[in-house]
Design a protein that fits this description.
Blueprint lengths: L2 H11 L11 E5 L2 E4 L4 E4 L2 H4 L8 H13 L10 H12 L5 E5 L2 H20 L5 E5 L8 H6 L16 E4 L4 H7 L4 E7 L14 H12 L2 E5 L23 E4 L10 E5 L1 H4 L15 H16 L6 H18 L3 E7 L2 E6 L4 H9 L2 E2 L1 E3 L3 E4 L7 H17 L1
Parallel strand pairs: 3-13, 5-6, 5-7, 7-8, 8-9
Antiparallel strand pairs: 1-2, 2-3, 4-10, 9-10, 11-12, 12-15, 14-15
Helix pairs in contact: 3-10, 4-10, 11-13
The protein binds pyridoxal-5'-phosphate.
Length: 396
């Protein structure tokens, strides 16, 4: 079957929820991918900020293989050894006292919304339920999380949406303050808006959100689904702000490609979940936990996160140089290895051209090229990426 025939067959049986690029990857290693024809690609997308350790990292592969051969699933009506181990690791390295495991970012945020509502409901006799989120945010695709997402395009055709969400502009503390009502129970925010176009708020913004939440005794939920697990140079992107959140959600890079999500909370807030209030059949199963433990240990113990800022700064500097040659590259922004290039034109044709030349990244918010490579890339990988991008920009 040729690749075109395969794509026809795929489209005949898989729902059309994605605009897919016409390539079929069959193998990956580190920051490299290979398609069915054996063509090699340099991957600066990493499955959209998922494969932080690179594709098929040997330690994660080994952990999954060994766990699969021993025990894959038992259900959360029993105690699970590796669940305790990953939860302990997360607690040790974060603000949190307790962890709830699930399978994706949407599920982690859904859990956060439920936990915040239950916590506030109990304390206010049902008066506080509203969650403030940011315009251009992205929190997921379930009905509640797509409603939390401050982008109407993702909500089209889904009416009636769940009640109890209100949106304010990102990076605007005054607007946030104005938005509070007697019904507000929590604020939910990304440290850097990923799907919204790699938008980095001003220094002090997160701290400002925390202070406003403190004044009104509101919960602060940080969505670290895309920024977490070392992407911006620290395990969690909220760390440099010095604040303590009430709830943090994470997913993407947690299992280095194995589906895995988590919601972290303080003891006080976590106490609003008691048996029967929330659950997941697969969440925290032994196989996912083995992938999560191996990923987290490799990220921390092998010094991967320590190098992110240096590599990210180098990549940004090279992009800035390139932008001097191509006026269409309007703005370069981001942190660590979460980098956006805002263009003065549509980004899709550039993504397509780069793909043809064996270089992978994507476009978000219409005109922002998004680079979220494996965190293990080297300066040599960056040089190669810049070389290809130079070729691509020259030709458009
Ligand atoms: C910040 C953020 N939150 C939540 C999600 C949803 O995660 P998932 O696609 O795993 O449900 C995403 C996905 O891109 C995200 O970037």
């Amino acid at each position: 079957m040729t690749t075109d025939e395969f794509i026809d067959s795929f489209n005949s049986c898989v729902m059309g929820t994605y605009n897919r690029l016409p390539v079929v990857f069959v193998k990956g290693s580190g920051a490299r991918l290979w398609d069915r024809e054996g063509k090699e690609y340099l991957d600066f997308l990493a499955g959209i900020a998922v494969c932080a350790l690179g594709h098929s990292h040997p330690k994660v592969v080994k952990a999954i293989q060994e766990q699969a051969a021993r025990l894959m699933h038992v259900s959360n009506i029993f105690y699970i050894e590796p669940q305790e181990k990953l939860a302990s690791l997360l607690v040790e390295h974060s603000f949190a006292d307790k962890v709830f495991f699930c399978n994706s970012g949407s599920e982690a945020n859904e859990a956060a919304i439920k936990l915040a509502r239950r916590y506030a409901n109990a304390r206010s006799s049902g008066r506080q339920y509203e969650i403030i989120t940011m315009k251009d945010s992205f929190h997921g695709r379930t009905l509640a999380t797509v409603t939390a997402t401050g982008q109407e395009k993702f909500q089209a055709g889904l009416d009636p949406l769940p009640r109890g969400f209100r949106y304010v502009p990102f990076n605007d503390l005054e607007a946030l303050k104005e938005s509070f009502t007697e019904h507000t129970c929590a604020v939910m925010v990304e440290v850097i808006q990923g799907e919204g176009g790699i938008r980095v708020p001003d220094e002090g913004y997160l701290r400002g959100v925390r202070e406003l939440c403190n004044e009104r005794e509101l919960l602060m939920i940080i969505d670290e689904v895309q920024t977490g697990m070392g992407r911006t140079g620290t395990l969690f992107a909220y760390e440099p702000s010095g604040i303590t959140p009430d709830i943090v959600t994470m997913a993407k890079a947690m299992g280095n490609g194995f589906p895995l999500g988590a919601m972290l909370a303080t003891d006080t807030v976590a106490s609003a979940f008691v048996p029967g209030t929330h659950a997941s059949t697969f969440g925290g199963n032994p196989l996912a936990m083995a992938a999560g433990i191996a990923t987290m240990e490799a990220l921390l113990d092998d010094g991967v996160i320590d190098k992110v800022s240096e590599t990210g700064d180098y990549f940004c500097a090279q992009l800035q140089e390139l932008a001097k040659k191509y006026e269409v590259m309007k703005n370069i922004r981001g942190k660590g290895l979460m980098i956006g290039v805002e263009l003065a034109c549509e980004g899709a044709p550039i993504v397509y051209k780069a793909l043809e030349k064996g270089f992978l990244f994507n476009c978000t918010a219409g005109s922002v090229l998004r680079f979220v490579p494996p965190l293990i890339i080297t300066a040599k990988d960056v040089d190669r990426a810049i070389g290809i991008l130079d070729d691509v920009m020259r030709s458009v």
